[in-house]
Design goal:
This protein is an alpha/beta fold. It contains eleven helices and eight strands. The protein has a single domain, classed as TIM Barrel. α6 links the parallel β6 and β7. The longest helix is centred in the C-terminal third of the chain and has 32 residues. It starts with 6 loop residues before the first strand and ends with a helix. The relative contact order is 0.13.
Length: 302
C-alpha cells in the first residue's frame, strides 16, 4: 500500500507558453524546483493547477511529466475530483497506471453533504480502485461542499481507505481538532489547505502536512522542519515573514504564483487560463517588496 504522506506537499501550477499552450518543459522545471527545495511530495492537478481549464490530453501528459521527473523520490498525489464517481475512477486509473497510489478527491456538490451519499460515492471509487488511498478534500463553499467534521468522521469510519483528510474550510482549526479526536485508527493524518495561511494553527492541532502553492516552497519546508524539530519559535518567525505574501496570494492566486516563479527564474511565462485578477503595477511592486524582504530576489532574481 502507499507510503505515508507528511510535510510540505505543494500543489503544482500549470505553466503555459506565450501562445497559451501547455509548457511541458516548464512543468518539468517546476517539479525539479520543488524537489530542490526539499518538499515531501507534490500534488497535481488541483485547483491551483487550473485543472478545470485543462483538456484531458493535457492533464494526462502533464501528470506523466510530473511522475517521470519525480522518479519515485517523493510521493505524487493525483487530483481526481469530478462530477461523477465513474469519471473519478477514470482519473484514478490513469494515475494508477503511472504508479500513483494517492488520489485527492473532493466529492461534487451534487452529492450533497450527508454522510450516506458521500460514503456511497467514495465507496464506488474505492471498489473500482483497490490499490489506492483517498485524500478527502473538504474545501469551503462556494467551490467546495463545506462538509461538517461529523460527516467526515462517519466517512472515515465506513471507508478505511479514506486515509487522509485535507481540511480547508474556514475556520479549519476546530474541524481538524474534531476529526483527529473522533476519527478511527485508520486515519493516517489531516492535511492543511488554505495556502498555508493557517499552517501554525493546523500543525498545533495535529495536522501532519500542508498543501500550499509552490512559489515559496523553500520557506514552507524550513517552517515544517523547524516545527517538527520542536523549534516552534523559529517556525513562527518564518510564518510571520511569509504571511504578507500569502495574503496577496489569496487574492491573486495562481497569477501571483506564476509571477513569483518567473521572478525566481523557474518558468518563462506567467499566463493563466482561469479567471484571476490582473496584477497591476502597484500589486507587482508590493509582491517584489515581499520577495526582497524574504531574500528571494537577491538570491535568485536580482
Amino acid at each position: 500500500m502507499a507510503s505515508r504522506l507528511k510535510g510540505i506537499l505543494p500543489v503544482l501550477p500549470t505553466p503555459f507558453s506565450d501562445d497559451g499552450s501547455v509548457d511541458e518543459a516548464g512543468m518539468a522545471r517546476l517539479v525539479k524546483f520543488a524537489l530542490d527545495q526539499g518538499v515531501d511530495g507534490v500534488v497535481f492537478p488541483g485547483f491551483a493547477s487550473e485543472v478545470e481549464k485543462l483538456g484531458a490530453d493535457e492533464r494526462a501528459n502533464l501528470l506523466g511529466i510530473v511522475v517521470h521527473t519525480v522518479d519515485e523520490r517523493v510521493p505524487v498525489v493525483a487530483g481526481a475530483s469530478a462530477g461523477d464517481w465513474r469519471e473519478v475512477v477514470e482519473h484514478g486509473k490513469a494515475a494508477v497506471s503511472l504508479g500513483i497510489r494517492h488520489l485527492m478527491v473532493q466529492p461534487p456538490k451534487s452529492v450533497g453533504i450527508g454522510a450516506p451519499a458521500l460514503i456511497e460515492f467514495l465507496g464506488n471509487v474505492l471498489d473500482a480502485l483497490p490499490d489506492i488511498e483517498i485524500i478527502l478534500q473538504n474545501a469551503p463553499a462556494p467551490r467546495g461542499s463545506d462538509l461538517s467534521p461529523e460527516a467526515i468522521v462517519e466517512i472515515l469510519k465506513a471507508l478505511p481507505r479514506v486515509a487522509y483528510v485535507k481540511e480547508e474550510t474556514l475556520p479549519a482549526g476546530p474541524a481538524i481538532s474534531h476529526i483527529i479526536s473522533h476519527a478511527p485508527d485508520t486515519l493516517k493524518g489531516v492535511i492543511g489547505g488554505g495556502g498555508a495561511r493557517y499552517i501554525l494553527d493546523e500543525y498545533s492541532r495535529g495536522a501532519i502536512a500542508a498543501m500550499p502553492a509552490l512559489e515559496i516552497a523553500d520557506e514552507h519546508v524550513a517552517l515544517d522542519k523547524a516545527w517538527n524539530a520542536g523549534d516552534h519559535q523559529e517556525a513562527r518567525q518564518i510564518y510571520i515573514r511569509t504571511l504578507p505574501l500569502l495574503v496577496l496570494q489569496a487574492v491573486y492566486r495562481m497569477r501571483l504564483t506564476k509571477y513569483v516563479l518567473a521572478r525566481r527564474g523557474i518558468i518563462e511565462h506567467v499566463g493563466v487560463r482561469a479567471p484571476t485578477p490582473d496584477l497591476d503595477g502597484v500589486a507587482i511592486a508590493d509582491i517584489d517588496a515581499n520577495l526582497a524582504e524574504l531574500g528571494l530576489l537577491s538570491r535568485e532574481a536580482a
